[in-house]
Amino acid sequence: MTQKEYRKAAALSEENAQRSLFDEYFNYVYTIVFSRLRSCASREDIEECVGDVFADVYMQFDERKAFNGDPTGFVGTVARRKAADMYNRLTKKRQGMVSIDDEEAAEIEAPDDTEDTVEKKELRGSLIKCVEQLGEPDSTIIIQKYFFMRSSAEISKLVSLTPEAVRVRCSRALKKLRETLTAMNISL
Amino acid sequence: MNDKELNLDVLENADEDTIKKIAADCPASDEEKERTFAMSRKIYKERTRESEYKNDMEVSGVDVYKRPVWLKFAAAAAAVAIAAGAITGGGILLKRHRTQPKVDSSEIEERAMSPFGDLSGCRVRLTNAAIAPAVFEPNEENRTALLTALNEGDWNKISPDTPLPDGETELIYLMNGTKPCRLTLYGDHTICYEDNSSKERYEIDIDTENAVREAIKYAPEAGDELIYLDVNDLNNINSVWLTTSSLNPDYADVYIPPAGKIFTVPAKNCRFCINEKWDAEAAFSCEGAPEAMSIFTELEWKEADCEPNFVDDICFFSFRCSNNDGLFNYSLNVYSNGYAYAEYSDKSTGEAGSCIYMLKSQDRGNLQAAFVGAAFAQLDNMDPAEEIKHCKPLLMQISRTDDTSKLLNLYDNAMNTAAADALKAASWEALPDDAECGEEVCRLRINENLYLQTYYFYDNNVAVIGYEKKKYSVSPELTDTIKSLSDYAWKRAEPHSQLENEAPDTLERGKEAYQNALETNGKFNGGAPDLLDIDTSSEGYRDFGDGFSGYLVRNVSSINEINEMYHQTFSDRYPENSFIDGSPYFERDGKVYWYAGGKGSHIYYLGTEVLGILRRTDDEIFFAVENSYGGGNVDETPPWTEQTEFSVVVQPDGSWKVGKLTVPD
């Protein structure tokens, strides 16, 4: 949905326009936010952040001077920055002050660790490829369970299997994935 | 990894491609979505009520960009963290700690932004004097260093008119999502930012400049990938991205204006016609020419404020594309009056839309240039039979068989078709450049919708084509067919000094009428000074900014009024005897303006002679006119003639008006 389409729709019904925009980008925004906050935020925090992102996007679409084309990049940028803000807020709350003599301080990553960045990107690509090779529904189950941290009961609704069947398939898929990763010399 | 767990932390804060793949598996339930939507509405409503709300999420530039104060604290904190890491030792640095997330460098990078948004996810291509016209993609380390420097730099906007310094520049091309831009780094600590709609200039701090210069050094040994561009146009911020090692050439990205987004379709299903309306058989394929389609993203697609009558206009460009299952279809027609009609439908999603646009003349020119280039590239590899299928013959000229320097315009459609069909059906076997040619027996010149092509036929069944003088072996049947057409056409075009039952002074009157026609035509195209009151002062000149500019014609308020004057001499029997909006007059706001541009002239044109009378109908007399050309005083170009037709329409009172007129080049 472009800004122009949004504005046209909003002229008729603001809520419908916002819902269309929301429906189109929800998965994308949710995944960006979740990806950033999964290690430190609750689901409520994540929902709040996603809501916050869309509120900003609505406002930008209302106020921002016209921009053409696909707004995916724009929406993604807002989502990343909002998620980063919340990440910072949450981790600051938990960390408190860190003394440079503290052992924990040593675990703060150097800012210019580009080698790590390159490796991570390659690793991510390989990992996704290996997961995709599992085929459906196993790839979905693995991502749901280990990335989105959903329970077997929740996953069962998504893949139309019983929770028990999800657990069994998950276990087998994990074994298969592990073998593939080991063969590729990837250790997680 | 233990037996029961799989650590997917590596997918945290992932890159765009990974995010999009994972997003397909987004697990949020309908309840969660509904809750989140309600929350977004709530936050939105609260914020729109806040009069003091200040938008801090602006992605694009601001006048003077200053880094937020917090960033300086963050940077300071990061510096402490680096120091702490260095003191404690590198070994422990890589150890992961799940429960207490680290404040890593990317945190700071994400929060810092250049005046044109967060560049951290951009793809990068670089070039400089040593590399151009190739570009290179820097290794990941340098890419990250460059984008970090750009994001974190101090940018101070300066006047775009600031004089440019001498010396070499470095060009940095960025692709931020689907938005391309270019940064030009000058030797005076300034950077010029350009995207498809804006251009700005900034001063940057010396540390940033040094970091940028360090990061953009070409380092093939470190993994920089050199790319030779298919389109060597470093000024085009879009085409730089069209050549990639990973691009799948089977698919093309097409910007669909009514949808406001890009669709990816099989390249073989993208086809276009240039300088003519849509003709599926004549259409060129975009396969192998994806760069031409990038022009769609560069044009300003402004919705038209009225619905024009397309039927009366000439469609000079048409484009069609679809996906393999035919569910997605898109068509675009662009007309010479500036209007464009675009329509698409995607049955797989139910999306559909159409729109009429008004394109700027410059955009129309760019569009035409892009696709003419793509067409020429394909024509170069076609034999004449294929070429003629793609190029619509607009005017054919055929020579005499006994004197190939004498050319005759073929006005008869049946003869044009016969000649074109003969060329299409023939077999063309390429010969080496040094192949022998015998005696020239006929010459066929075709003014196609794309270019002028001349075919020379020889008595040893060799044909030579075009300026490049490509040689082909052709069948005796083809040579004979062309010769027969020539004999037939010339026999019909034989001029007579007098026709039976025709007044004896008809030829003399015809010669006078011809001279008068040329003068009147030239006068009106030059603004008809004795009939039109044109204000050629600076007050009378208007530039409308959309490619239309000219001088006000004070004594008329419509082009129809000018046509009434013109039709005192010219008959309205022929459509070309009426001026249409845009050539050389145009209407704006109830006024008429004249383009102050004259017709060009052929440098080899020597003169014209009315040879005789060709034929007469009930109320029209046709004359043969011969235009002579040659090097003359210019160079050694051998002379040739072109025989055309001129006619007069006999009025009920016996007077004549000009009918058919072919103005000599």
Question: What can you see in these coordinates?
Answer:
The complex is a heterodimer of chains A (188) and B (665). Chain A has helices at 3-12, 14-37, 43-63, 72-95, 114-133, 138-147, 152-159, 163-183. In chain A, helix 2 (14-37) crosses helix 3 (43-63) and helix 7 crosses helix 8. Chain A is 73% helix and 0% strand. Chain A contains eight helices and no strands. Chain A folds into two domains: 3-95, Orthogonal Bundle (Rna Polymerase Sigma Factor, Chain: A), CATH 1.10.1740.10; 114-183, Arc Repressor Mutant, subunit A. Chain A has 188 residues and is an all-alpha fold. Helices cover 26% and strands 28% of the residues of chain B. Chain B is elongated, with a radius of gyration of 33 Å. Residues 51-111 of chain B have low confidence and may be disordered. In chain B, helix 5 (140-152) runs antiparallel to helix 6 (206-215) and helix 10 packs across helix 11. Chain B is of the alpha+beta class. Chain B folds into five domains: 64-112, no CATH class; 116-240, Uncharacterised protein PF16224, DUF4883 (Dna Ligase, domain 1); 248-379; 385-489, Uncharacterised protein PF16224, DUF4883 (Dna Ligase, domain 1); 527-594, no CATH class. Chain B contains 14 helices and 33 strands. The longest helix of chain B has 20 residues, at 30-49. In chain B, strands 18, 19, 20, 21, 22, 23, 24, 30, 31, 32 and 33 form an eleven-stranded mixed sheet that branches. Classes of the chains: A mainly alpha (188), B alpha+beta (665). Chains A and B meet through helix 2, helix 3, helix 4, helix 5 and helix 6 of A and helix 1, helix 2, helix 3, helix 4 and helix 5 of B.
Order of helices and strands of chain A: HHHHHHHH
Q: At CATH's second level, what is the architecture of the largest domain in chain A?
A: Orthogonal Bundle
What is the CA-CA span between the terminal residues of chain A? 38 Å
What is the percentage of strand-forming residues of chain B?
25-35%
Q: List the uncertain runs of chain B.
A: 51-111
- Total count of domains of chain A: 2
Q: Evaluate the radius of gyration of chain B.
A: 33 Å
Low-confidence stretches of chain A: 94-114
User: Quick one: how many beta strands of chain B?
Assistant: 33
Total beta-strand segments of chain A: 0
Overall SS class of chain A: mainly alpha
| Number of DSSP helical runs of chain B | 14
Give the helix proportion of chain A (percent range): over 70%
The CATH homology group name of the largest domain in chain A: RNA polymerase sigma factor, region 2, helix turn helix motif
Specify the helix fraction band of chain B.
Answer: 25-40%
- If you average the pLDDT of chain B, what whole number results? 80
What's the assembly state of these chains?
heterodimer
Q: What is the 3D shape of chain A?
A: globular
Major sheet details of chain B:
11 strands, mixed
The CATH class name of the largest domain in chain A reads Mainly Alpha
